[in-house]
Amino acid sequence: MDTSSISSTSTLPENKLHSLPESPLASPSIVCKVRARIPYPGGSFYLHLYTNNMDTKEHLAIVFGDEITSLSLNEPRENETEMDRKVRGAAPLQNNLSDTPKTLSKAPVVRIHSECYTGETVSSTRCDCGYQLAESMRLMSLQKSGVVVYLRQEGRNIGLLEKLKAYNLQDMGHDTVTANLILNHPADGRTYEMAQLILKDFSINKMQLLTNNPDKVEKITENSDIVVESRLPMLPSWWIDPSHADHCETLHGIDACPTPINDLATDIDTTVENTPEYLENSLNKAKSVSPAAFSSYERHIRPTKPTMSEADKYLITKALKMGHLLDIPKF
Ligand SMILES: Nc1nc2c(ncn2[C@@H]2O[C@H](COP(=O)(O)OP(=O)(O)OP(=O)(O)O)[C@@H](O)[C@H]2O)c(=O)[nH]1
C-alpha cells in the first residue's frame, strides 16, 4: 500500500481541543483521535479512542452501527491529507460530517461502563463486570446500533492497586463497600463528565441506558441536556428466571430474549453470512484449531452458576448497600 501521502508528523498542529492539559480553568473537552473497525462475532463495531484535557487516560467508545458518528473525529485537522484522515478513521473531507450532526432515528441504547481489568481481562468471577460488558455488546450487535462509553475508572475509580488491596480485605470478610471505606476511599468515586462529553460528541442527548444503578442515571443527566428516556436493567443471566414475567420484560424495546443464552450462534444474526449453521460451524472450527479462541467471549456471555458465587455476593452488596435496582433471587 502506498503510504507516501501520510504526513510525516504524528503531532499535527491540531485545533485547540487537542492539547493536554491547557490550564486548570479550561473547560473540559475531549477529542476523538482515532476510530477503527473491530471484527466481532456476527459483525463489527467501531472502537473510538478519546483524549481530553482533564486526565491522561484514553477513554473509549465502542460503537455499533454506522448511524452514530463522532463530530470531533471528522473535524478537519490542519495540513492533513486524505490519507491521514483514512489512517485515523475519519470520513473523507468531501463528505465532511463535522458541521452536520446526524439526527438519530431513535434514542440509542447506551451503556456507560467503567473499566474492570480483573472482571473483563482476566475473567474474574468476583464481580459481574465482564458479563455486563459482553452482554451489552451482544445486545447492541443484535440491534446493529448502540454505544458503550468505556471509562477508565478502574475499581470505581480507586485504581487497580487499591482495588487489589480491597480484594484482600474482601477475602478477610469485608464487602466491596466497607473494603473501600477501610482504605479511605469512597464506596464509589466515579464521575461522568467525560461520558457526557463523549455522548455529546456523538450528538446523543437522549438514550436508553443499560444499568441497574440509579446514581448513574442521575449523574449522567446532571448539569446537562442529556435525557435518559428509559433505563434498561442488566440482570445477570444466572439470576434470570424465564418463568418470571418481569424478567421477561427486562429488555423491553430490545428485540432480544433475556433468558439465559443457550445457543449464542442462534442469537446472533440472521443475515446470509451469519446463519446459525454458518456461525456454529465457524465456532466449532475455531475451537478445534484453538480451544481457547472463544473462551473469554463465551465465558463472559454464558457464565454458569457454580463459578459465580462470589459474584452473587458482589451483586447482593450492590443491591443492599448501593441502591442498585436488582431483585435478589432465593438461594
Ligand atoms: N473498589 C472496587 N471496585 C470494584 C470491585 N469490583 C468491581 N469494581 C469496579 O466497579 C466498577 C463497576 O461498577 P459496578 O458497581 O459493578 O456497576 P455500575 O457500573 O455502578 O452499575 P451498572 O451500570 O448497573 O453495572 C468497575 O470500575 C469495576 O472495576 C471491587 O471489589 N472493589
UniProtKB/TrEMBL annotation:
Residues 34-232 form the GTP cyclohydrolase II domain. It comes from the Eukaryota. GO terms for biological process: riboflavin biosynthetic process. GO terms for molecular function: GTP binding; GTP cyclohydrolase II activity. It catalyses: GTP + 4 H2O = 2,5-diamino-6-hydroxy-4-(5-phosphoribosylamino)-pyrimidine + formate + 2 phosphate + 3 H(+). Pfam families: GTP_cyclohydro2 (PF00925). Pathway: Cofactor biosynthesis; riboflavin biosynthesis. PANTHER family: GTP CYCLOHYDROLASE II-RELATED (PTHR21327), GTP CYCLOHYDROLASE-2 (PTHR21327:SF29). Belongs to the GTP cyclohydrolase II family. This is GTP cyclohydrolase II. The lineage of its organism: Eukaryota, Fungi, Fungi incertae sedis, Zoopagomycota, Kickxellomycotina.
